[in-house]
Amino acid sequence: MPAITVDNVLVLPRLPRLDESTTFRPVRRLTTAPSGYEGEGFPVRRAFAGVPLSELDPFIHLDQMGEVDYAPGEPKGTPWHPHRGFETVTYIIDGVFDHQDSHGGGGTITDGDTQWMTAGSGLLHIEAPPEHLVVSGGLFHGTQLWVNLPRVAKMIPPKYQDIRGREAALLTTPDGGALIRVIAGEIAGHRGPGATHTPIAVTHVTVQPGAQVDLPWRPDFNALVYVLAGRGTVGADARPVHTGQLAVHGPGDALRFAADARQDSHTPALELYIMGGEPIREPVAHYGPFVMNSRDELIQAVEDFQAGRLGVIPAQRLPHTGGQGPRP
């Protein structure tokens, strides 16, 4: 997994050693993501399937996109489609993805980059592999996280953040057994580049075989640990986990996880995508690409989309490889 890395983790700042009074969070729920297809047919794992929204709050949805090795002509994306009322955080671990929206945002992200789109009051957007990747094929792997917006921010103007992988705050453990990439929020005093409307933390952690990580975590945040690849354990009671599983944690001051001493040849380390945030605790009305507080607001969002009030597809637009036009 390319993402962002360093030649020598020992030059990085290190997590503090936690004292004996630390309360490590227990694993409350362990689920396995079902597989499906998104957009024009690219494979995904639905990481939050089966988990109540009350345990995910302030998050709504997480897809692991791939890992898939496309043959020439196979790479796929999404057609133009609307969003309102939340944020999408697209993180590319391996491969290349283009983004464009009707509010003027857009760009290309690759190994370790993040596209952070605040849909707010609404827009149209498209995500697609660049033409050269469609022609050549190649490896593609990433995640897309949906972050809810509180009622007071549901209708703010749309915004786009183009976050390069090298901008992430990098740190390691006291023994250098893991690489921690802070994409948003703060971990042990190290702040990531993502600007958020809801207090959250998002990090991608690579744990070397046999290594253990004790990660300080804000007590007022929930804690979700998703396994992108590899095998290991989570929680103070060392619950076994593997690729495609999500561990929902209970209360406490810190997370504990470790990589199995032996990994398979395709996955040399344990790769974790870790999320947490301050729960919004507001009603959630969710329909397709709209996340609002009530059914009436959802109906209004659909009507606004159908009337063209969420924007129009730009004249200079990205191509896509198939599928239908935008639909809720």
Automatic annotation (TrEMBL):
InterPro entries linked to this entry: Pirin, Pirin_C_dom, Pirin_N_dom, RmlC-like_jellyroll, RmlC_Cupin_sf
Record-annotated Pirin N-terminal domain positions: 43-147
Pfam families tied to this protein: Pirin, Pirin_C
Binding site for Fe cation: H81, H83, H125, E127
Source superkingdom: Bacteria
Cofactor requirement: Fe cation
Record protein name field: Pirin
